């Protein structure tokens, strides 16, 4: 009955005997290095990747830059221990590496330069009191973003920063949105702008500030701007709307050092972003959406011919949303990734007729970087191993691994197997689901089910490694564990993703119950030992389950949206830009807010939330817990005063996993392990 996935098992080092193995526990997860997105040198020989390691004794982390080769022959650290580094970018000639770091003498992150052709220590290039991020090295300059006080000199900014740090006043003040983003407050009197500094050293020059347009306040990164290869133009994103409640992010083009910024997308009321000049300098590409206020709308690749001013939608006929795009070295198309039927695959998109070709098939890929000779590198991961650095054959998708990070940790870990299945969900639709089996799974045995509900709701579960919600870790406890990609999940077309709007309940709820029914028909599942849970939207749907018929003995509810009305306090208030606010469309909110189902709540629930969560404010958990307690329903609240939407600190994470395990075992006895 169980379909063995032998190709997956081949990916796991089998270096230890069975008696020496250990499960994939939360402690093992924190032994692992976190490998970031690689950057390949212009000539295609070197690769630099940030790697973060954690110390569970101190709860501290450190990120160092490592050098690899595209032949897989080199692996050594580039940056010193004791000071985290990030944002690596190569000089156009590949002889120098720029990166950001905040070392002992730095008040904020600065640009450092490191020679690549011999021994030597990194030297600081910049001294920007407001810090630097999102580096791009083009021509003779290094470009960066900094959040500045627009009417102050650098010296005045340094004084302002020091005064703020020494002030006894902790108040924040706003006169307009946005005021928060995920886990931090947005300072209204500061703006994000692009600057540049000569790579040889010199004065910092403002690029976007003279244009009178700031980058979006809630999103500044390398995807916010790009520089023409000959440094004549900048393309960048900015809010063109006069009101801030529902910003309209448009794409602007300006000649560096002169003229005004031209709005390239004034007729599109939805979002535009991620500008990219082609390597030959003849075209500008960007991602464009059509539905205002809907982050999961299909992203189309628009291309503007800079000479003729003609533009076209390259991917108009492709029902997927490409991300992580890079131009092909010859400027004839793009490489990018997209969620597709449960995996994140690499695709090639040709400019000619918009032909799309899938390059990879199984497991997840991301973090693409391309050299001038077409060498393509990226990261690869699966449910069974964390991200690795690989060189990708652009013709057949073959991936050559370039690193050995985490091999020693995984060498004696006893992993289970997993497979992709399809079952019938809401309205007869096919629903894809990932099923994870405990190590040593016996199809003649009997196991409990732990059904996981993903967040978003438009965030699919693909074949990648999850440190915070690791299905293999849950399976190691003795549970068959599953992630189902219910209606609303991207990767099956826009109609499937948008099916749940504005009704967030009906289809995902039916898909969830149908998933449990699929398992109940299996001889190796005990349908009296089923539990379920999720976070964010997954916590929302778990809160809905509290008041509806379902087969689960208990629920895990992490960072839930429980009250659609008080969610107005969040940095993301449902889809009000698309469906209206509760005072205009009261019935929509009445129909989908979990707190209206409280009369029928009757399931034990473990509720977890962090104080610094500004995406789903912590009051949501307090409301739900008080409701359950008032109704006499067995419930437990775990509150983290120092965590946000996610539990990120090592010891807090260990506690999270242990408490979840304790809760699940209370209501569903684990199977053999």
Automatic annotation (TrEMBL):
Domain Peptidase S9 prolyl oligopeptidase catalytic intervals: 466-667
SUPFAM superfamilies reported in the protein's UniProt record: alpha/beta-Hydrolases (SSF53474), DPP6 N-terminal domain-like (SSF82171)
Keywords: Acetylation, Hydrolase, Protease, Serine protease, Signal
Signal peptide from the UniProt entry: 1-18
Matching InterPro entries: 6-blade_b-propeller_TolB-like (IPR011042), AB_hydrolase_fold (IPR029058), Pept_S9_AS (IPR002471), Peptidase_S9_cat (IPR001375), WD40 (IPR011659)
Example of a GO biological process term: proteolysis
Hydrolase recorded as keyword: yes
GO molecular function, a single term: serine-type endopeptidase activity
Function per UniProt: This enzyme catalyzes the hydrolysis of the N-terminal peptide bond of an N-acetylated peptide to generate an N-acetylated amino acid and a peptide with a free N-terminus. It preferentially cleaves off Ac-Ala, Ac-Met and Ac-Ser. Also, involved in the degradation of oxidized and glycated proteins.
Recorded family membership: Belongs to the peptidase S9C family.
Descriptive protein name: Acyl-peptide hydrolase
């Amino acid at each position: 009955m169980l379909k063995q996935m032998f190709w997956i098992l081949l990916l796991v080092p089998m270096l230890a005997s069975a008696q020496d193995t250990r499960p994939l526990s939360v402690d093992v997860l924190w032994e692992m290095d976190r490998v970031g997105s690689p950057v390949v040198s212009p000539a295609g020989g070197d690769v630099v990747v940030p790697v973060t390691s954690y110390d569970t004794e101190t709860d501290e982390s450190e990120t160092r830059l490592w050098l690899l080769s595209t032949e897989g022959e080199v692996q050594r650290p580039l940056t010193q221990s004791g000071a985290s580094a990030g944002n690596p970018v190569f000089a156009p000639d590949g002889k120098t590496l720029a990166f950001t770091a905040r070392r002992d003498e730095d008040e904020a992150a600065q640009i450092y330069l490191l020679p690549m052709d011999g021994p030597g220590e990194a030297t600081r290039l910049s001294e920007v009191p407001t810090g630097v991020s999102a580096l791009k090295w083009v021509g003779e300059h290094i470009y960066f973003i900094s959040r500045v006080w627009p009417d102050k000199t650098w010296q005045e900014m340094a004084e302002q920063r020091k005064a703020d740090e020494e002030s006894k006043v902790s108040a924040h003040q706003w006169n307009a949105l946005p005021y928060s983003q995920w886990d931090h407050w947005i300072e209204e009197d500061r703006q994000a702008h692009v600057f540049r500094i000569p790579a040889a050293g010199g004065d910092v020059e403002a690029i976007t500030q003279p244009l009178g347009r700031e980058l979006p306040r809630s999103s500044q990164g390398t995807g916010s701007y790009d520089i023409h290869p000959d440094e004549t133009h900048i393309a960048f994103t900015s809010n063109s709307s006069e009101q801030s409640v529902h910003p309209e992010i448009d794409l602007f083009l300006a000649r560096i050092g002169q003229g005004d910024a031209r709005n390239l997308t004034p007729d599109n009321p939805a979002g535009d972003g991620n500008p990219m000049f082609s390597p030959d300098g003849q075209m500008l590409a960007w991602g464009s959406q059509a539905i205002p206020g809907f982050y999961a709308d299909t992203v189309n690749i628009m291309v503007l011919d800079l000479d003729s001013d003609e533009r076209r939608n390259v991917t108009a006929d492709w029902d997927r949303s490409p991300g992580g795009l890079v131009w092909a070295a010859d400027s004839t198309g793009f490489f990018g990734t997209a969620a597709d039927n449960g995996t994140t695959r690499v695709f090639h998109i040709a400019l000619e007729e918009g032909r799309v070709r899938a390059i990879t098939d199984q497991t997840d890929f991301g973090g693409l970087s391309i050299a001038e000779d077409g060498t393509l590198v990226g990261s690869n991961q699966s449910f069974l191993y964390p991200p690795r650095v690989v060189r990708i054959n652009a013709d057949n998708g073959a991936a050559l691994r370039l690193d050995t990070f985490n091999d020693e940790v995984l060498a004696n870990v006893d992993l289970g197997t997993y497979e992709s299945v399809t079952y019938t969900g809401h309205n007869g639709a096919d629903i894809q689901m990932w099923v994870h089996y405990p190590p040593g799974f016996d199809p003649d045995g009997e196991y409990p089910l732990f059904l996981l509900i993903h967040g978003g709701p438009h965030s699919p579960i693909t074949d990648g490694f999850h440190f915070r919600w690791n299905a293999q870790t849950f399976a190691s406890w003795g549970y068959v564990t599953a992630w189902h990609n219910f209606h609303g999940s991207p990767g099956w077309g826009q109609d499937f993703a948008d099916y749940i709007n504005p009704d967030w309940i009906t289809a995902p709820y039916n898909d969830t119950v149908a998933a449990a029914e699929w398992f109940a028909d299996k001889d190796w599942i005990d349908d009296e030992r089923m539990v379920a849970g999720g976070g964010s939207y997954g916590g929302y749907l778990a809160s809905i389950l509290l008041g509806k018929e379902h087969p689960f003995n208990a629920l895990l509810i992490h960072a839930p949206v429980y009250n659609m009305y008080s969610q107005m306090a969040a940095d993301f208030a449902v889809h009000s830009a698309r469906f209206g606010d509760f005072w205009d469309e009261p019935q929509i909110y009445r129909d989908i807010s979990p707190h209206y189902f409280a009369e029928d709540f009757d399931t034990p629930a473990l509720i977890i939330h962090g104080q610094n969560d500004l995406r789903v404010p912590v009051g949501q958990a307090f409301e739900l817990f008080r409701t359950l307690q008032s109704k006499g329903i067995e419930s437990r609240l775990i509150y983290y005063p120092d965590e946000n939407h996610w539990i990120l600190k090592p010891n807090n994470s260990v506690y999270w996993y242990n408490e979840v395990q304790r809760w699940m075992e209370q209501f569903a006895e684990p199977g053999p392990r």
